[in-house]
Amino acid sequence: MIDDLYSARILSLAANLPHAGRLPAPQGSGERVAKLCGSRALVDVVLDDEGRVAQFAQEVKACALGQAGAGVVGENAIGASEAEIAEARDAMFAMLKSGGDGPEGRFEGLRILKQVADYPARHASSMVAIEALLEAVRAALKHHTDTRTNIAGAA
After folding, report:
1. Contact at 8 Å (CB) between 134 and 32?
2. 8-15 and 64-76 helices cross at what angle (nearest 10)?
3. Which residues pair with residue 31 across a beta bridge?
């Protein structure tokens, strides 16, 4: 039943959103909206010299499942690389769509949403935070590349 989706852990994650808000000067931002229900995540990041997330903030307006996903993302985003985030997003998608085990490592906590697989209408809302994070990191990496190209071209 759908009540099984809303475990105490999911509700706890939804109620305690880490890094809520916006960064004053993000290098990259990403936004995802679940069209069916309107769940939305807006993520800002600043990367370190190695391309890992050094600063992170998120503004999330979503159902409890989207908020829970954002809670896990918020707990684990700092220090993550683009590759780790992409791998987690892909593993989460496979978990929801084709019975995969779910993310491993840093974002393994997203496995708490495994039972959402039985509710296709909830898939997109469960994915908004990890997808917005990946978009933000890719935008920040592009910003880094464009800045370095401009500096090299000016020299």
Report:
1. no
2. 70
3. 42
Residue 49, helix vs strand vs coil: coil
Structure-token pair, residue 96: 């929801």
* pLDDT of 88 above 80: yes
Helices (H), 2-122: 8-15, 64-76, 82-98
Helix (H, G, I), strand (E, B) or coil at 135: helix
Q: What tens digit of pLDDT does each residue of 103-138 get? A: 999 999 999 999 999 999 999 999 999 999 999 999
The alpha carbon of residue 153 and the mean position of all alpha carbons in its chain are separated, in whole angstroms, by: 34
Distance separating alpha carbons of residues 82 and 87, to the nearest angstrom: 8
Give the integer Cα–Cα distance in Å for 110 and 93: 11
CA distance 117 to 127: 12
Question: What are the structural domains of the chain?
Answer: 2-145 (3.90.1010.10)
At what angle are helices 82-98 and 123-154 packed, to 10 degrees? 160
Structure tokens at 104: 């491993």
- Distance CA(108)–CA(37), nearest Å, equals 25
